[in-house]
Amino acid sequence: MKKTAKSLFLITFICLSNLVFGQFVANYDESKVPEYSLPELLVLENGKKVKTAGVWENKRRPEILELFQNEVFGKVPDVSYELSFQVIKDNIEAINGKAILKEVEITVSTSEGKLPINVLFFIPKSNKPVPLFLTLNFYGNQSIHPDKNISLAKSWLRNNEEFGITENKSNEATRGVRAYRWEVEEIIDNGLALATIYYGDIDPDFDDGFKNGIHGILKDDSDGNKNDNWGSIAAWAWGLSRAMDYIVTDADFDKDKVAVMGHSRLGKAALWAGATDKRFALTISNDSGCGGAALSRRKFGETVWRINDSFPHWFCGNFKKYSDQESNLPVDQHMLIALMAPRAIYVASAEDDQWADPRGEYLSTYYGSQVYKLFNEKALSEQKMPNIESPVVASKVGYHIRKGKHDVTPYDWQQYISFARSCFGLQ
Prior knowledge:
By secondary structure, the protein is of the alpha/beta class. It has a single domain (about 65-425), classed as Rossmann fold (3-Layer(aba) Sandwich), CATH 3.40.50. The chain has a ten-stranded mixed beta sheet with strand order 1-2-3-5-4-6-7-8-10-9, with helices on both faces. It has helices at about 5-20, 55-75, 185-190, 200, 215, 230-245, 265-275, 305-310, 335-340, 360-370, 410-425; strands spanning about 80-95, 100-110, 115-125, 130-135, 195-200, 255-265, 280-285, 345-350, 390-395, 395-400. The chain is built from eleven helices and ten strands.
């Protein structure tokens, strides 16, 4: 074999090995971002331009929503279910007497079984009804605050030696282990409530063949292997909407002023919840990255191939067609941002979180914001990213990038609270 042929063979073998054995080297070099063209946001599938809010709402928005359902997140099975709500704790003083603690168990019932979902509320002692942040958390409701009145999570938890989780179960040692991510007192001081759900109550975050959680009881056996069936991100988003089903019945809350917020993979779920449920007045994405706020076609940091390889249960089967084939996607994430219009959207990034592609998150927000012009609202005016910790806000669209890593910080919450108060008309 000639030297050139040997070299080509070696290069081919390495490339194939990287794909087969899951090795991946992320691109963090802006000069190596491939050239790309984004799918047209304001052009109908028949080629006609979208020039009015009515055409967007009645024609283009449904087209884009269907594409995301079919090719990215998957469709919720068309199976009937029943909901019941039980207040299991109420009127418990919390946050140094500034708030009350409430817990509500939402039970989803189908012919296949029942699924309890526990929602924790911190509600300010102020005139009701109050605006609300609705969020998901990673390690159980008890992890967000050390209050001993919070029920321990009963669902499967990912083991974490730092938090003392060794048998996939919560325990007393897990109380408040993630409190540093939750500015509960500042939220309360600003006249807003906080609601949170352990995401594992809705669906477990591992590749279980969709046998547990909501996937285990809400399924259509006639199409069990279809590639457009919903993944876990769609399931978590669906669970957020079931919490909203309860919130609209509770006089403590202003149902027209609910913000859905999420970090990382839960930021992806928050975006999809905001896109599919117009009852959410504000959607907040914190470091949501690939499959969330970041443009897929940039292939910067985490890519579609990498996310499908590591987390095959997050998205629908069709999304795997676009692994390392991002240019074939009929959508990109600026279109997901646009689905929030004319409701409010806020996207945040972190300087050191290159895995989530901060520039891609900003560009997605910038391009997606252009649809707001149809509603006589402002869009982001600068394609250039803002400086670190210099938030930009255009009417109902906001963005910031802060110092630091992949996390939720007090700085992030300060921006979300300020933006929410502005959107909700709070003085």
